[in-house]
Amino acid sequence: MEIPNPPYFSCHSESCAHLLQTSLKSRDPLKGKSIHAQMVKLGLTFSVYLMNNLMNLYAKTGFLLDAHDLFNEMPVKTTFSWNTILSGYAKQGKLEKAHQVFDLIPVRDSVSWTTIIVGYNQMGRFEDAIKIFVDMVKDKVLPTQFTLTNVLASCAATGSRGIGKKVHSFVVKLGLHACVPVANSLLNMYAKTGDLKMAKVVFDRMKLRNTSSWNAMISLHMNCGRVDLALAQFELLSERDIVSWNSMIAGCNQHGFDNEALQFFSSMLKDTSLKPDRFSLASALSACANLEKLSFGKQIHGYIVRTMFDASGAVGNALISMYAKSGGVEIARRIIEQSGISDLDVIAFTALLDGYVKLGDITPARQIFNSLKDPDVVAWTAMIVGYVQNGLNNDAIEVFKTMVSEGPRPNSFTLAAMLSASSSVTSLNHGKQIHASAIRSGEALSPSVGNALTTMYAKAGSINGARKVFNLLRQNRDTVSWTSMIMALAQHGLGEEAIELFEQMLALGIKPDHITYVGVLSACTHGGLVEQGRSYFDLMKNVHKIDPTLSHYACMVDLFGRAGLLQEAYKFVENMPTEPDVIAWGSLLSSCKVYKNVDLAKVAAERLLLIEPNNSGAYSALANVYSSCGKWDDAAKIRKLMKARGVKKEQGLSWVQIQNKTHVFGAEDGLHPQKDEIYKMMDKIWKEIKKMGFAPDTESVLHDLEVEVKDQILRYHSEKLAIAFGIISTPENTTLRIMKNLRVCNDCHNAIKFISELVDREIIVRDATRFHHFKDGSCSCKDYW
Question: Would the pTM of this model clear 0.85, i.e. be above it?
Answer without folding.
Answer: no
